[in-house]
Amino acid sequence: MDEILKNISADDIERLKLLLSIIPGSRQKEVVTLRVFTEEYKNLIQHNKSASYLRSVKIALNYLIEYFSIKEGKPGLQKPIDSIELKNVENFIIYLQQKVKNGYVVYYRNLKAAFNKAREWGYVSENFFIKVKLPKRQKIAPVFINSDQLSVISDQIKSETVKDFVMIAFYTGMRLDEIVNLRWKNVDLQNRVITVGDEYFTTKGRNQRFIPMSEEVVKIIENLELRLESEKIPVHNKGLCSRVIRLNKTERDSSPDCIGIRMTNGFVFSKSNGKKFTGDYFSRRFKKTCRNAGIEKSIHFHSLRHSFASNLAQKGVPLYTIKELLGHASISTTEIYSHLNMDSLREAIGKLDTSASLSAGSRITMDKVKEQNNIIKNEVKIFRINSGEKR
């Protein structure tokens, strides 16, 4: 059956469906190809998940389609989804490991979730991705930078906008998309709190969270306001382009085109036309700056988020607090930073040292007792000899 399906084109399938539809009493079973499923699933994800997850799903599906295109020598989009068997999935995982050595697990999970949905829709009878057991890999602690390394990187950045963007990522732990979509109305300088997620932007965990602003972040935001004012960069408020003024400088202005920056829906980081930047714009420039500064090659933009969490863990901040700041759905995700709290680890090792000291003290005490007993015995012997008593 599989060999027959290999030689059937999409046009042949459409003709077959037409023939079956005109046969009296026939029940036609729709043949769903990877092309059909891919489009339907992407449309579902687009309306229910974050943009970053959608991109990841698209990449995973493209690898699957690419694999069948190479293996069968024809467009993988025409592959009937219910013809994918366990052996196909196992061989695909090997192919994926060779193509993406470090990130293949993420794409495997994406496809496992996708085929769960295909099963719910009745497109496949079984999800063979669930049956594949991936080899266990050594878990490597996420790389991060400290404030000194951040200063080195910052000195290499020529654009003030990129520099501010990087600094906010380091001192808030916000994701790339979260900063790109940050609006002025969600920056509360009076209470020093940033609100992540609103009616315009959905976070990865689909939960709104609040991040207190450190002194460094407050200074960055204030300087950014001053720069926007001096450059007269417009911001968008309900689609209207308005000149920027600082609300704490003057709450009212006689000009009708003036509006307080913190009252707008405008993006904190925007182009000269008021529109937001793409995440790739900042990601590429950060990576290039790290190379120029001689920083470790494994450092990328997401490392700034790791740096935020790692530096807090090193200072003894509880993991649950770090979890809330990062917006993790589960504490198990945050536990990758648990080994960085060296104070608690040293305290644990210190207990072994204390036990060893107590044991050593006990040995010293016992040795002293034995020594004193020997002295007493010797003294008794001497006394008996001098007294003339028989031993």
Write up what this structure looks like.
The structure is a single chain. With 391 residues, the chain is mostly helical. It folds into three domains: 2-131, DNA polymerase, domain 1 (Orthogonal Bundle), CATH 1.10.150; 147-340, Intergrase catalytic core (hpI Integrase, Chain A); 356-391. It has 15 helices and six strands. It has helices at residues 2-6, 10-22, 34-48, 51-72, 86-99, 104-120, 147-156, 160-172, 176-180, 215-231, 279-292, 302-314, 319-326, 331-334, 342-387; strands spanning 187-188, 193-196, 209-212, 235-237, 240-245, 258-260. The chain has a three-stranded antiparallel β-sheet with strand order 1-2-3, with no helix packed on it. A three-stranded mixed β-sheet has the order 4-5-6. The termini are far apart. 26% of the residues are buried. The model is unreliable at 235-260 and 379-391 (pLDDT under 50).
Summary keywords:
391 residues; mainly alpha; DNA polymerase, domain 1; hpI Integrase, Chain A; 3 domains; 3-stranded antiparallel sheet; 3-stranded mixed sheet; 15 helices; 6 strands; 55% helix; flat; disordered C terminus
